[in-house]
Design brief:
heterodimer; A: 429 residues; alpha/beta; Peroxisomal Thiolase, Chain A, domain 1; nine-stranded mixed beta sheet; two-stranded antiparallel ribbon; 17 helices; 11 strands; B: 232 residues; alpha+beta; 3 domains; five-stranded mixed β-barrel; three-stranded antiparallel beta sheet; 10 strands
């Protein structure tokens, strides 16, 4: 089977209001990508993956048709994959599988989201319609509430503190200030923040303050995947997709106390359940961890031949709409054992300059989170890292963010409360 | 195959006006100057027209095979389901067991006691519009006695800084249930004794800080809605 490469991409910056319409934002990102791939004839693109989350945010069904037509790719096959927050990562993985199967050679993955046409409270409500609307939705927590409750469970079992969460927020926001596509920089400029700023940001739902929470954003991002055969026609520095994995878990997090599909799957993690805590029927992931992402990561590591992620990976972009999700996912990605996520931030392992920096783009809480585009923009960040183009794309001052010599990176994405998602391992020759 | 109406408390007549009023036609517009372009530092300025299009709709949604749970709420009863094969008790109920061993066996109904324990929770200090006047509130996942899964609900009659994982609760119903999950809520049952591991109370500074943050929420709700939501 052919190898699959990412050969280019582009981003149209993330901000709370982008007044261009979705197709124009995608066109801006597409132009940037075409500019970087002078040998590419757009007629060579075989198919388009269309990545956007919500129809009701914009009162428009089949938005993908508008996008594809606008880019002049109207005759080509087009697919939409929609899975909440997992939408963009699922689109990338689907494009990968289509090329891997030998059916297509060149696929454009186009992602966008316009999330500010309704007010913030309504946007939260529309997003929460991705939770079970007969049950979780009704009691008024929405994703802020669900994720905070999951984090309180993790704190209770494994002992991380509010300060650990704020350290993560500081790290991610300070990474984002060099990023010219980031919402944080657009709204707050290039000043660094400190722990005090995190502590004094507004408490939304304990333990999460505004700096721990993803932005509501608008923006777009595209990337191009190619088979080995055609990749070298367009670039000398492809970034290979070396492994992918997908996983799912229950819709309602409360059901995970007795989710029989997990029973016995991860005995080591079940064993790490604190002895003093009341144990549910299925102790991993229960409500503290993201089992779907463990399942996906293990498949991706298997494909990529990775045995010791923290040693073999050079950077990771994690889908963390809340600071605690980042910490928990370090465990589920096997960067450390279950319950030890707190040590990775305390010891600086995940900081820029540490052994395995995470969220060098700023990711969801600081780069921004226009759902259909988020993981595609993070994939672009990974691509620019592995091809050493960060200073070129971000500006020369951003060289502090460039991980010199980096050759392997992980991208993880998910939707709901970890209901579905995927992991991709990128590597360069 | 026809259906027969047994109870009809439809309110569609009242809401149809509202749906007709918001029918996607622009009701207003603005013209703004805003940035154009994909990258900070390289943007230009453009004029944009923004129209306002309201849209109203009412869904007629069936609760399906777990309708009994919601009808139970109307009668102030709590129901769960039990798998006849593996014995797992579900609340929220499932009409079919999800244990792979049970091959989608049909579950049986069981009346559950109005008691439970907080499995996890959060304190909401900001919310969607519909819940704004109830702020601050505790949102908890409660494992009902005898059930193996956790049911989300709000906790009342407890100061937010006193809630903890493991707290025993009694489940109560609002006066006029409407057939939705908000018809029930939890209140602390017995003594409030956070365990040493309690995520919040293990650090007294965290408790103090939360109390301070809550003050501004109480003040906001009092000013905006005239409601004093303090629990005394």
């Amino acid at each position: 089977m052919t190898k699959v490469a990412m050969i280019g991409g582009g981003v149209s910056r993330f901000d709370v209001n982008r007044r261009e319409v979705a197709e124009e934002l995608v066109a801006q990102a597409y132009r940037q990508m075409l500019n970087d791939l002078p040998e590419l004839e757009t007629r060579d693109i075989d198919a388009v993956m269309l990545s956007y989350f919500s129809d009701h945010l914009n009162q428009q069904l089949c938005m993908g048709w508008i996008i594809q037509d606008y880019l002049g790719l109207g005759t080509k096959p087009g697919y939409r994959v929609e899975s909440g927050g997992a939408t963009p990562v699922d689109n990338i993985i689907n494009a990968y599988l289509l090329i891997k199967s030998g059916y297509y050679d060149l696929i454009l993955v186009a992602g966008w989201e316009k999330m500010s046409e309704v007010d913030t409270a309504k946007t939260n409500e529309f997003i929460a319609a991705a939770s079970d609307t007969d049950w979780d939705f009704t009691v008024g927590g929405y994703y802020n509430g669900y994720y905070a409750a999951l984090e309180v469970r993790h704190m209770h079992l494994f002992g991380e503190t509010e300060e650990d969460l704020h350290r993560i927020a500081v790290k991610d926001h300070n990474n984002a200030i060099e990023n010219p596509f980031s919402q944080w920089r657009s709204q707050h400029g290039m000043g660094k923040i400190t722990l005090d700023d995190a502590w004094s940001s507004r408490l939304i739902c304990w333990p999460y303050r505004t700096l721990n929470i993803a932005n509501i954003s608008e923006g777009a991002a595209v990337l191009l995947l190619a088979s080995e055969k055609v990749a070298k026609k367009y670039t000398d520095s492809p970034v290979w997709i070396e492994g992918v994995g997908l996983g799912t878990d229950s819709m309602r997090p409360g059901d995970r106390l007795a989710n029989w599909a997990w029973k016995g799957l991860y005995p080591e993690d079940e064993g790490l359940y604190p002895v003093w805590a009341k144990t549910p029927l299925t102790p991993y992931p229960e409500m503290s961890n993201f089992g779907s992402m463990r399942f996906a990561a293990d498949a991706a590591y298997r494909d990529a031949g990775i045995e010791n992620p923290i040693k073999e990976l050079d950077l990771a972009e994690i889908f963390a709409p809340y600071s605690g999700v980042e910490l928990t996912l370090w465990e589920d990605m096997r960067f450390c054992k279950r319950g030890e996520g707190k040590n990775l931030i305390r010891e600086g392992i995940v900081e820029n300059g540490g052994k395995l920096p995470t969220q060098l783009s700023g990711a969801l809480t600081a780069q921004g989170h226009p759902v259909g585009a988020s993981s595609i923009a993070m994939a672009n960040h990974v691509f620019w890292q592995l091809t050493e183009q960060i200073p070129k794309v971000y500006g020369s001052k951003a060289s502090s963010i460039q991980q010199s010599g980096a050759s392997k990176a992980l991208l993880q994405g998910h939707g709901g409360t970890g209901c579905q998602g995927g992991v991709i391992i990128f590597g360069r020759d | 195959m026809t259906e027969k109406s047994i109870v009809d408390k439809s309110a569609l007549e009242e809401w149809i006006t509202w749906a007709r009023k918001g029918n996607w036609r622009p009701v207003g517009y603005r013209i703004v100057e805003a940035p154009k372009g994909p990258k900070l530092g390289e943007t230009t300025t453009e004029r944009y027209m923004i129209v306002e299009r309201p849209h109203g709709v009412t869904y007629q949604h069936s609760y399906g095979l777990v309708s009994k749970f919601f009808e139970g709420l109307l009668n102030k009863e709590l129901w769960g389901t039990v798998c006849p094969k593996c014995g797992t008790t579900y609340c929220p109920p499932r009409a079919h067991c999800w244990n792979p061993e049970c091959k989608a066996a049909e579950c049986e109904w069981r009346r559950l006691p109005l008691k439970g324990e907080v499995w996890t929770y959060t304190v909401m200090l900001f919310s969607a519009t519909a819940f704004m006047e109830q702020l601050p509130f505790v949102l908890a996942y409660v494992k009902v006695e005898g059930a193996d899964t956790a049911l989300p609900m709000q906790l009342r009659e407890v100061r937010p800084e006193d809630a903890y994982i493991g707290m025993k609760v009694d489940i109560r119903f609002i006066e006029d249930p409407r057939g939705e999950l908000m018809d029930l809520y939890g209140v602390p049952s017995g003594k409030i004794e956070p365990p040493e591991h309690a995520a919040l109370q293990r650090n007294p500074e965290s408790v103090e800080r939360l109390k301070k943050d809550l003050e501004s929420t109480y003040a906001f709700v009092l000013k905006r809605f005239g409601r004093d939501n303090r629990v005394r």
